[in-house]
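User: For my dataset I need records formatted as: sequence, then structure tokens, nothing else. Please produce one.
Assistant:
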Amino acid sequence: MEDIIRESFSEEDTYNIGREFGEAAEKGDVYCFYGDLGVGKTIFSKGFAKGLGINEVVNSPTFTIVKIYDEGRLPLYHFDVYRIGDVDEMDEIGYNDMIYGDGVCLIEWANLIEDILPDHYRKLTIEKDLTKGTDYRRISLVSV
């Protein structure tokens, strides 16, 4: 996949960009999110899930670390590792089985577990630019 930059001017735009990426997602894809608190990672994730054909409610797994959605065309493993104290905790939740499994992974706060990320993943950065408005987001996707 080539590097992609999208601009969002609303939550609806962010959701739709996420849906577009979800529609294009393939088995084994790992998307690592980078961006400050409140930039729209969860809104993007909701759209991404919809793009996979997942209709259940999607929210950030802040306290559960991972949520699994398996009703779409591919399983979705949605991680939020913000509260991880040590990367060894990831073994306890079956991280490797999910990362190297048959689904797609979204990892919020991936910078906290960079030591155990796979060799190849997609770095998804969501950034605000207040000079373009309070709802503006720059969404970039780079293959690593």
